[in-house]
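Report of the visiting student (M.T.), summer placement. My assignment was to run the structure pipeline on a short list of targets and document each run. The first record concerns C2 domain-containing protein.
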Amino acid sequence: MLLRGCVDENPGMEPQFYQRLFDSWAVLVDFFHAGGKGISMEQLETTPQHMDLTRILSLNQTPTEHLIEKYYKELLKQQNEVTDCKYGILNLRAYYNAKSQTLRLDVIGAKQVIPLDTNGLSDPFVVIELVPRAKFSSQPVLKTKVMPKTLNPIFDETFEFHIPQKVPPGALLHFTVMDHDYLRSNDFAGEAYLELIDVPGFSPTTAPTTLRQFNLVLIHPVNNCKDVFQVLDSRKEDKEAQDFLRNVQLNY
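After the run finished, the structure tokens were exported:
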């Protein structure tokens, strides 16, 4: 298909370029439909070529910031739909003090972390960051201490982030559980996400008076964001896109 070839031959263009292609395709669809006298809309919209082109153009015309939000939404959805705990559970408490604009986070521990060492155990620690990073670039990336030779680490550590009460849409706490290795690179054990809007103190619908405990199921990302990564990778001159890809690669 000519339009699909145009997309493939012009990777990394500005989103407006693909918006124009999308609009051109919509005009062609209307032409073939001919106000009900031509091909039916159902037939047009269910062809593999139409669905593939629409998907690719939709992704390419989406701003980088929204593609990154889409990526995190997909992972949060995956976490919420998990029916077993094959990678373990992370236990924590969180509370936001609107007066001091401080997010307090108690990382209690984890249970049933997967064994990644030859002794059948792990040396787990947790990396904590606010994402999307482009919106929290001034916030530190924090880490717990390493707990040696255990699958049920108890961290019992408290962290604080100073952030304004009005957080951007889709703001999340990202937790990455890693297995510490002394002679090799650290191994990925699992990750979990917590929406800031669910933390007491951020939302007017949550009681702001006490720490709330969260038991987050750890996941391994399913490769359901391949197209998002390909589009972001094509944006070589887009610093936000490239910084995001580097950050994701570092986590895994």
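The CA atoms of residues 84 and 120 lie 21 Å apart. The longest helix spans residues 15-33. I thank the supervising group for their guidance throughout the placement.
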